[in-house]
Design goal:
This protein has 452 residues and is mostly helical. It has one domain: Up-down Bundle (Amino acid/polyamine transporter I). It is 75% helix and 0% strand. The chain is globular and about 60 Å long. The structure holds tryptophan (TRP). The site of tryptophan has 16 residues, from helix 1, helix 2, helix 10 and helix 14.
Length: 452
């Protein structure tokens, strides 16, 4: 079953596919709304530290596990440590993938829906009040958000059914750079709005007195979510990497590029928020309220808006591909389920439970009023996956490396058998994985449950 495994065709394809997994709704939707909710610069500073000292080491670790074993996370852990419970790190990853997709498919549905509305010209000359009302109406539905969520899942599972090379590579290689250019155009427009400076200050002025414990945990969760870590996505992708790939360099390039996209998205959103007098802490609707305003009063604005939501749909779709790939590879390799059947089955599972997330966003609805400890379905799926399961998964990967793998073995794999000079990168990795990353993760967890 694991005999002839496909690989990506080149180093460039590896980079873009991995970046395609990392860049997604996390950058353009989640990052700005969390920065807004948790008060700006200080949150951003913690986030950047988490990317460097927790995210990168975990990413490299997942790369190691995936490329070494060339298996899905469950198979990979069983191979590296046969007959031990370590394989359940992989099982937990499969569970996290589902949890994330329950709400991710909902937000991707909103993006598709906004694309559709932009094509129809619904946002031409829109005002701030109308932009707010529009988002409110979109999430209430109840039929349309569910329908769009369904469409997202049909698109994603069809691509997955075609296989790794044909499906994932083709989309990511061409469209990622385009998204980048379009965000730059947004930035240019947003930064020239009257009063844009207040938005830039909000994003970059660090005031640690505003930082709560919840903010620190969320910043760490965001780093995991952003870089697709802690559940085996990167393990699964690395299992398709070419043998001569420079894992350290790929990881660093992905982390830096991904962070740049998030920052550029922030530079489009916050100047607009402050210029139009929106609330930075408006929550999950922040992106959807601001972007139509960015383009509302400029020539070719609607065309640019269509392009933005088109590329945002692509980014959401490629990121979802990497999520669905985890349970699909798991079902097909561990249980011999045909790939196409596995893709369809997963879409069905995600749709049935994802509806709960979608219908819980409107607080006035029946499902929306159903909360537990202050969170509804959408928020619980999000909170549990990003702030709990991904970091726990990441911690497991790190502890695994610490316990099972020697300096020599890690050096051998990261240098591709001695072919690559490693320089200081390896030392940074070794110390992070052994000391810094697990200690930081532990401290943040203890802090969040109130022990520290
Ligand atoms: N990183 C993606 C984003 O920012 C989402 C994502 C894709 C993800 N695969 C993942 C998150 C795996 C966590 C784990 O939109």
């Amino acid at each position: 079953m694991n005999g002839q495994r496909e690989t990506f065709s080149s180093g460039l394809a590896v980079f873009f596919a991995t970046l395609g997994s990392a860049v997604g709704l996390g950058n353009i939707w989640k990052f700005p709304y969390l920065v807004g909710e948790y008060g700006g610069g200080a949150f951003l500073a913690v986030y950047l530290l988490c990317v460097a000292f927790i995210g990168l080491p975990v990413m490299w670790t997942e790369f190691y596990v995936g490329r070494k074993t060339r298996k899905n996370p469950v198979g990979a852990m069983s191979m590296l440590s046969p007959g031990t419970p370590w394989k359940h790190v992989g099982t937990m990853g499969v569970a996290s993938a589902y949890l994330i997709m329950f709400f991710y498919s909902c937000v991707a549905g909103w993006v598709y829906y906004y694309l559709f509305k932009a094509i129809q010209g619904d946002f031409v000359g829109i005002t701030m009040e109308a932009a707010k009302a529009e988002f409110g109406a979109v999430v209430v539905g109840p039929l349309s958000p569910v329908l769009w969520q369904f469409i997202v899942l049909v698109v994603v599972s069809s691509i997955i059914a075609f296989g790794v090379q044909k499906g994932i590579e083709r989309m990511t290689k061409t469209l990622m750079p385009l998204l980048f250019v379009l965000i730059l155009i947004c930035d240019f427009r947003a930064l020239t709005l009257p009063g844009a400076g207040a938005g830039v200050d909000f994003l970059f002025q660090v005031d640690f007195s505003k930082l709560s414990g919840a903010a620190i945990l969320t910043a760490m969760g965001l780093a995991f979510f952003k870089l697709s870590l802690g559940m085996g996505t990167m393990t699964t992708y690395a299992s398709y990497f070419t043998a001569d790939n420079n894992l350290f360099r790929t990881g660093a390039k992905v982390a830096v590029s991904d962070t740049m996209v998030s920052l550029l998205a922030g530079l489009a959103v916050f100047p607009t928020v402050f210029s139009f007098g929106l609330e930075p802490g408006a929550g999950p609707g922040l992106l959807f309220m601001t972007i139509p305003l960015v383009f509302s009063q400029i020539p070719f604005g609607n065309l640019l808006l269509v392009a933005f939501f088109f590329l945002a749909s692509i980014a959401a779709t490629t990121a979802m591909l990497s999520l669905v790939e985890v349970p699909t590879a798991w079902m097909s390799e561990e249980y011999g389920v045909d790939r196409k059947k596995a893709a369809a089955l997963n879409a069905l599972i995600i749709f049935c439970i994802g509806i709960l997330a979608t219908l819980s966003v409107d607080k006035a609805s029946f499902l929306g009023s159903y909360t537990w400890l202050g969170r509804g379905f959408f928020d619980w799926f999000d909170y549990l996956s990003s702030n709990v399961m991904l970091p726990v998964g990441g911690l497991c990967f790190v502890i695994f490396v610490r316990r099972h793998l020697s300096w020599e073995e890690l050096r051998r794999e990261f240098s591709n058998g001695g072919a690559l000079p490693l320089g200081g990168m390896f030392t940074f990795y070794w110390f992070s994985v052994r000391y810094v990353t697990p200690v930081l993760l532990g401290l943040i967890f203890l802090h969040s449950v109130g022990v520290l």
